Amino acid sequence: MNSALIQQMLIYFDNVLIFVFLTTAIILIIAYQFWKNRNLPPGPWGLPIVGYLPWLDAKNPYLTLTALSKKYGKVYGLSLGSVYTVVLTDPKIIKKVFSRDSTAGRAPLYLTHGIMNGYGLICSEGDLWKEHRRLTFNYLRQFGATKVGPNRKKMENLILHHCLDFTDHLKTVGENTEIDIFPPLRHSLGSAVNVIIFGKSWDRDDKLWKRLQYFQEVAPKYLGVAGPINFLPFLRFLPKYQNIMDFILKGKEETHIEYQKIINEQSLILDKLNIQNGVTNNATNILQGFLVEKQNKSADVAERLYSDDQFYHLLADLFGASLDTTVTTLRWYFMYLAKYPTIQDEIRKELEDVLQGRPPSMEDLNHLPLTDASILETMRIRPVVPVGIPHGSLEEMEIEGYRIPKGTMLVPLQWALHHDETVWKDPEQFNPRRFINDEGKIEKPEHLMPFQVGKRMCVGNELAGMFLFFFGATLLQNYSITLSDPNVDMWGECGITLTPQDHTFLITPINKNVK
Ligand code: HEM
């Protein structure tokens, strides 16, 4: 054989080898994809790397996800960037799934695992989460945020004190003029939150308090804009996102420095109380509760579960989770009452008939079905977290016969539940009476899930109920409210939370003295 022929044969052989190699690789990749996707829930296809993200309405993702649920059913899956996501829109399935230990994780997002590093309460998992959930739950109960219990009256009085601060302030600035009630509402409700968490509150014009409120208002919006980083973490290196990340990380650092100063103050106060009373559990706020619990732990547990980082993140989570959600819900509440003046008058009449001018108490709520129902209706029609707060699967599992891989983001889609036409007639109509049955009692369909359900259900739901009722009732007892612009947008802006667009009210005093 001449050498040219041999060379030709070798080239041919090489090409065959390359062809066989490539074909095998492609077959293996396809087989792997089939194996990886075996028995997953139905759902739309996406592009490599970005998945379904390009088709998600960036401003109203909950609308796209709700539309998809109509096509693919109550359990469907899709890829959002690198995160495989399963969306749930049936209350029974959500209850069943969220009652498992294996779904008590958080979704593998850059926000929870990257920015927050799994610290705090909202983003933590495992032992750290269990310990701080227990701590928070117990201290909230101990301080009176509970249906029954010896300290409930104390908590009611604390909140009422700040409600009166709110209406008193409106007297000085708002009567018969147009007013944005967001800042005074946030100050008064926030002051009650501060006392419960930090053991102190600040004057309206205090620089630090203004700064904390600023971060609280802006951070969720920034985190909303930075949303794609959650699914495509490499985006954080692009200049557009770098600025946002800088803002978030610097804000976090600045807040933690301030928290440390408050911790030092409260630590001295706690020491004094302990010496005075000769006992070691005198905690009067959550921050002190952390210090007491830490003292009572062995050195290795304290090091593992009670680090400074955990302390700062826990305080930030509690502050953010309580203030943002409740103030936003109340803002929607007042907007809807102003949009539906007849309902507003009927609620006020109910309050006048039952309370006869005295301040409300939680026991009254049983006799105030329309008031109670109007708060539920607000949380239904404009849930603060319309997409829901996602969980993460900690192991491979099965949901309704489908295989759910470990590390899946599980979304309880609140918007779909709260706007399901088969359950709620005219879901975009504000109609509190849908929650009142023929006997005049409150009846909540299982589709209503503003606090979600199961192992990670909102730990502050009792406290939230108190804030909403007291601030709502006190305002209505004192003022009638009208929107300055009756055509104001009622869809809001969706960052981490769904917040109303800027708006102002004309508030008119009710000519009755609250005793
Ligand atoms: C209208 C007011 C509120 C709404 C609608 C709301 C809603 C929610 C929702 C949907 C979750 C996610 C639950 C889950 O992951 O399954 C949550 C978690 C949480 N909420 Fe609330 N919340 C409100 C008020 C509060 C208040 C007043 C506090 C104060 C302590 C609070 C503290 C928390 C915390 C710490 C978590 C994380 C729980 C965990 O991961 O174990 N929330 N909330």
From TrEMBL:
Which residues does heme bind? 458
Protein's UniProt name: Cytochrome P450
Entry superkingdom: Eukaryota
What is the species of this protein?
Answer: Psylliodes chrysocephalus
User: Which cofactors, by name?
Assistant: heme
How does the record classify its membrane topology? Peripheral membrane protein
Q: Which family does it belong to?
A: Belongs to the cytochrome P450 family.
GO CC terms of this entry:
endoplasmic reticulum membrane
